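Pair request: fold both.
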Amino acid sequence: MSARALRLLLADVDGTLVTQDKVLTDEAVDAVHRLHQAGILFAVTSGRPPRGMAMLIEPLALTTPIAAFNGGLIVDDQMQTIEQRAVPKEVVGPVIELMASGGLDVWVYRGADWLLQKDKGPHVDREAWTVKFPPKVVSSYDAFTDQVSKITGVSDDRDKMDRVTDEARATFGHLASVAQSQPYYLDVTNPHANKGAVVKFLASRFGLSTEEIATIGDMPNDVLMFAHSGTSIAMGNASPDVQRAARFVTTSNQDEGFAHAVDRFVLHPPGSA
């Protein structure tokens, strides 16, 4: 595929666009501006809530829709809703119960709110620093089952995570999208809220063929967007399975993998000379 054929790059955020310390490097910012100068659109998608990506808008001069919650809520650069796909109300309670019974802490994202029951649980402080807003502590989720954008199960126990992930897919896979966005996060969203659907949304929004879209990511939930794009790039920090699902592999997010990918595979793709 020639460089001229690529018209949009869609990037995951954590593990891809930013470093392990959640830093947006100068090199990554410069790479995005090189895309702008080349007339190639740039968009982001993440399991983060919309407010958790607001800090990217100014440095990256973002004007494209921002796909939060893996596509469950798409907003514009003013944080106004363009499209929302909520978790089906009837599965919210059962999903929460399954996660809790499996030993995972449960977070619920609804509207602009991040709800949880234990404000000192694993990754809470880190997540609050990352998304730049605090959670709200509630005693029960019973009153918050409608308009839920994402339910996240949290644990550093990989065996628990994998076990609950498998059970959630078996139980709710026909009713919801179930994927680990980080080794310690299990995300459940609307069945049509996944990163593959984000590629299709952007293609329709900008009148593009999916073959004209490049995607870059590092986690299993990025594989669906790889499958629906013409050029797919895995980060060097991605697992071997994720790397095998991509057309190209760049360096890690600790070694400017995003910026390298922009130059090597998007602006000057192999075979374009």
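--- second member of the pair ---
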Amino acid sequence: MIAWQLLALVIVANGAALAGRLLCRHHGAWPLDFGLTLPDGQRLFGDHKTIRGVLLAVACTIPAAKLLGLSAATGIIMALAAMVGDAVASFIKRRLAIAPGGMAIGLDQLPESLLPLAIVGPTHGLSWLAIFGLGAAFVVFELVASRLLYRLHLRNHPY
């Protein structure tokens, strides 16, 4: 049961940023990297990683954790770790010259799911096999959900 609760928190944390973009458009979408461009000519993270996204991830994941019978602290850690994982993936994608919003299966999903699960999972009794299995489940969920959201015109790309 705890495995699915933690996976749900990963989904909420990552979905909150997308919901914020859909509901708020560009309002409050201050870039997390403040526009910093590195010597390679690429942004540190890019415009898609915003302070609003991080704040919404935390704001949504705390009540989700409480609804699932978990602590607010678990929600905060899961949200922040998911956002750090997502930022790391964006950093790597920029270094690989993958366009903002460009697809990189695995890189787009694993850091934002495995980092929070690796931090919180062991304290909740999850084995590393379970953590990696949940990371794989998140990849599948995210790929299916992205295509569905694209068909509903809520995403710009089907990935």
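Observation on the second member. DSSP finds five helices and no strands in the chain.
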